[in-house]
Amino acid sequence: MKTFCTRKAFAAIVLFLMAFTLIFVLRHMDILQPLSPQDALEERLILDSIAWPETPLLPSPISLEQTTDPAHSTFTILPGRKGGQWHVGDQLEVMIQTFDFQGRPKKSGGDFITARLHNRKLEAGVVGQVVDHLNGSYSAVFSLLWEGDALVEVTLVHPGEAFSVLDRLNKEQPDRIYFKSVFRSGSLSETTICDVCLRPTKQPLCNFTDLRTGEPWFCYKPKNLGCDTRINHFMGGTTQNISANEEKLFHSGVNLKVNIRASGPASVTLLPEKIGQLKVKSATVTSGPSGYYYQGVWRAVGGLTIHQFNTSAITQCLKGKAVHMYGDSTVRQWFEFLNVVLPGLKEFDLHSPKQAGPYISLDFANNILVTSRFHGPPIRIVTVSTSDLRYIANELDGLIGGPNTVVVFGIWAHFGTFPMEIYIRRLQSIRRAVVRLLDRAPGTLVAIRTGNPKFLNLFVSLTNSDWHSLQCNNVLRAMFKGLKVHLIDAWEMTLAHHLPHNLHPPPPIIKNMINNLLSYICPQKGG
Ligand SMILES: *[C@@H]1O[C@H](CO)[C@@H](O)[C@H](O)[C@H]1NC(C)=O
Ligand SMILES: *[C@@H]1O[C@H](CO)[C@@H](O)[C@H](O)[C@H]1NC(C)=O
Ligand SMILES: *[C@@H]1O[C@H](CO)[C@@H](O)[C@H](O)[C@H]1NC(C)=O
Ligand SMILES: *[C@@H]1O[C@H](CO)[C@@H](O)[C@H](O)[C@H]1NC(C)=O
Predict the structure, then answer these.
(1) From the CA of 462, how far away is ligand 1's center (Å)?
(2) Which ligand is nearest to the CA of 3?
(3) Between residues 208 and 81, the one the model is more confident about
(4) DSSP structure class, residue 345
(5) Going by fewer Cβ within 10 Å, which terminus of the chain is more open, N or C?
(6) Ligand 4: residues within 6 Å at CB?
């Protein structure tokens, strides 16, 4: 049996089930509310824009032989138009050639490759833009932003062959991480399974679709209790369901986040910028990095100057302001950071469950309010009371807003098991609320934290892969383009940094993110 999360999957499902349960299927067709024509068109355009290059299907059972082997693959620094001399302000281009496990050059693209240029001593780092030539070779293009040595690092995150597995899992088993709710009335208590969409069974459903946002949510109806007796939400467990054979495509140390070696030198020395000289830019990429590290400090490229805010500068910046944070635990990290560094900011004990919140902190002397709240289901962490399950869009509708209001949100890490349609829908409802907020209170500052790369093993790859996070980020960018909101590029800030990837980036990275946020709030202040 399959689920009914997407209309695309639906076509396949109809064929699959038509013979025996057509009527039953049709009854469930609209388990997700239909999108407005405008939203549906946007969804299609966005899905097209994030379409990943196809990789030829592997014969079954899977053998790694024809899949990308990072150990056989190599990269080469191209000499460039100045014949092996690079100045700050130029670009450096690296050609990556992939090979399979038998040592044969790959002829198709679709691998997920990341690239970084860095200097550990200078604590400098920048992310390279990777271009897939669809013939087994890739380019990585780096903006050159500091003087001195620069070492190229190229990483195969996943071979292209992994994505048909991940795609299929998200379509067919979005419930491989599943949720539950307790229903309780008097001495009666029952627990049932809940999700964005549920597998059709004979069991009746409770429909908890949010009436204001249209966010879908369902639980199987308890046998002896009414739907209105639901008291909480929690993660039920996981049903990892891929064959040992498919697991080979996600093998740590073999083909999961493994570095690719250089065929020749892996580093270059960058000379000082030549004033008045034409900059050499690659024809391959049009977009550059959003920033880079130098001496451990994140600097934005283009536009914004990021200031370094010490404790008193943070307090000065936030004086008289209310900062409302919404999202997953990666946003909660920012709340925690401010509580740690600001001596005047005191957390009020709401007796909230650890990890889930909501949280509230106050600095009375400076009239600073900081709040943090989870983004509504799906929430994979601890048990959350139904009365604390709030969608970001509805929370934003409850804000008056204005020049003393800062809104920060980040939502990505709990969506990794679902088809992208679910994430697009969620962002559409949040964006509508952001537009309403900015219409009624144009002075409100809205900042969005993107998803970041993290430690990957088999389990994480299958439930919250960097590949999925990257696509969430692309969807996010496309959907908030042109709005008066600020993106904080957690992806590049984590990827460019020398510290290991972590779902929860370590304090030096958080500090840079906070400085980035504060520089949007207080562009003139700070050191
Ligand atoms: C769930 O409720 C929403 C909102 O009332 C409704 O639009 C939708 O059709 C319902 N879905 C099902 C499967 O009953
Ligand atoms: C792959 O395509 C790139 C860009 O068009 C080209 O430079 C490269 O030579 C091609 N590689 C092969 C093996 O054909
Ligand atoms: C898991 O896989 C087995 C064998 O392929 C299949 O019978 C079962 O229905 C799957 N379970 C889920 C939850 O998809
Ligand atoms: C903090 O930064 C401000 C503004 O940049 C500066 O004037 C002040 O001296 C700094 N305070 C400390 C304790 O470093």
Answers:
(1) 30
(2) 3
(3) 208
(4) -
(5) C
(6) 310, 312-313, 526-527
